[in-house]
Design brief:
- The protein is mostly helical.
- It has five helices and no strands.
- Helix 1 runs antiparallel to helix 2.
- The longest helix has 52 residues.
Length: 132
């Protein structure tokens, strides 16, 4: 556990790994002299309260960003509908559709190239599964 904790806290700065590892192990070693019963009686409720606090923070963030999530979902569905015309022989994929697809990619909160390539891959995979 100390290794994972030190690795996470030093992810951006690898040179900080060893000092963080040494400090966390020293703190853990010191706490081990408290006794298991006392340690659990303090840490168990503390971790429960922290978990409850994290749930509240996540719920508030979801409520705050709900409209952005809905608009992003609408944008992605529209992109899927537009690009599906390109792979459907019965529909015409016009220059206007291509421009709209590119504009929707730019409007997305995700990197434009990533979202466009992911949607194209998704549609290709879906079409290949339907052809099986």
């Amino acid at each position: 556990m100390f290794y994972a904790l030190a690795k996470r806290f030093s992810s951006n700065k690898p040179k900080r790994f060893y000092p963080i590892m040494i400090v966390t192990v020293a703190v853990g070693y010191g706490l081990s002299f408290m006794g298991f019963k006392e340690l659990v009686s303090i840490m168990y409720p503390l971790l429960g309260y922290i978990g409850f606090l994290m749930l509240i923070i996540l719920a508030l963030a979801w409520i705050k960003e709900r409209t952005n999530i809905k608009s992003e979902k609408y944008l992605r569905r529209k992109m899927i509908r537009l690009i599906s015309k390109k792979y459907d022989d019965e529909q015409e994929y016009t220059k206007k559709d291509k421009e709209k697809f590119n504009q929707l990619g730019e409007d997305s909160i995700v990197d434009a190239q990533n979202i466009k390539s992911d949607i194209k891959e998704l549609l290709k995979d879906e079409l290949s599964e339907n052809n099986k």
